[in-house]
Amino acid sequence: MNLDPKQQVLVWWVLWGAFQSGLFMIYFMLRGTSIQATPVSGSSLLWLAAAIPVLLSAIIRWLVLPHARNSQGALQIFIIGICLAEATCFLGLFLFPAHNLALFVISALGIFQYLPYFAGRYIAP
Predict the structure, then answer these.
(1) Chain-centre distance of CA 52, in angstroms?
(2) 71-94 and 52-59 helices, crossing angle to 10°
(3) Which residues contact residue 12 at a Cβ distance below 8 angstroms, ignoring those fewer than 6 apart?
(4) Rounded to whole angstroms, how far apart are CA atoms 95 and 108?
(5) What is residue 115's three-state secondary structure?
(6) What CA–CA distance (Å, rounded) separates 70 from 121?
(7) Which of 93, 94, 96, 124 has minimal CB crowding within 10 Å?
(8) Which of these, 43, 54, 41, lies nearest to 89 by C-alpha position?
(9) How far apart are CA 21 and CA 101, in angstroms?
């Protein structure tokens, strides 16, 4: 299916908006129902390991995505990066419930960095 350039850019924006708003919905729906795992002690910094997917996502956004050659490859990289950022929220909800708010905020900021203002450069006129 061939879409005109404006429609292609709209797809990027709709996907970004769906992931960003979906993260909020997931967090507020699941935060009270998560299974309480063995709590990690307050002095332990193990919960920071849950931020690794967001760090990988940032590497993808700022180092890999700018080198994509076409819109198809860039869109795939875009979605993979956003999914990695979103994974941090799930880790907070299910593995580190004591820190779920902090991990949710980190995850939301990770998705926010994918704001698709750059999408037009991948679309051939």
Answers:
(1) 12
(2) 170
(3) 75, 78, 116, 119
(4) 18
(5) coil
(6) 9
(7) 124
(8) 54
(9) 16
Residue in the structure block whose two tokens are 């332990």: 44
The average pLDDT across 5-11 equals: 89
Give the separation between CA 96 and CA 107, rounded to whole angstroms.
Answer: 14
Number of H helices, E strands in the chain: 4, 0
Does the pLDDT value for residue 5 go beyond 90? no
pLDDT reported for residue 66: 95
The torsion angles phi and psi of 111, rounded to 5 degrees, stand at: -75, -35
pLDDT for 3 equals: 75
Please state, in angstroms and rounded to a whole number, the distance separating the CA atoms of residues 54 and 43: 22
pLDDT, residue 39, reads 55
pLDDT in tens, 30-64: 886 655 555 555 557 888 999 999 999 999 999 99
Instruction: Note the residue count of the chain.
Output: 125
pLDDT value of residue 59: 98
